[in-house]
Amino acid sequence: EVEAPITMSGTFTLDLSDKMVTAGEQMAASNGMLCIFTTTGNIIIQNGSINSTVCRGIYVQSGEFRLNNVDITTYKRALMIDNALATVDQNCVLSIGEGGNDAAIVVWGTGNYETDSISQHPKLHFYGIADSTRSVDNYAAISGNGQDRSYTYIYIYDGAELTSNGHALYVPQPGDVYISGGTLTGSGAIGMK
Known about the structure:
The protein contains no helices and 15 strands. By secondary structure, it is an all-beta fold.
């Protein structure tokens, strides 16, 4: 159980050894706080789970990030990707818990697509399962926020599953979406502006 956010940077692998990271009640005092915050580097989290009814999951600010064999269930945003490259493997399930209120994954970026280099734009390579069907609103399984000017790249691969009561994938910001397989289930498969 964690009582304060875990902050990571550098190059390393965090092996959870089939254990569960749970957000403690003290995390509830700050609505929306994160369980894990990565600032920069090349970070891998693997072999376990993260569960929170009181805070968000993982925020990836920059660098490279990978989830291998990790299940994350939170009330809001299991994974948030800023100006980073993130890969979620086929053995990962990212979901919103009962009564939660957000997308399972948010790809947003805080840069400027007109002036930043392509390496600064957020990129998601997704092979796993993203599920927001238990959200009280019809949030997408994977979403952008449409408020930032960063250009996003979202890749959905064979075997991936996106499930929502709204759009499975919602991309209201500038960007490219590549779908080479997978299943998208929702009231609408893809919403783009």
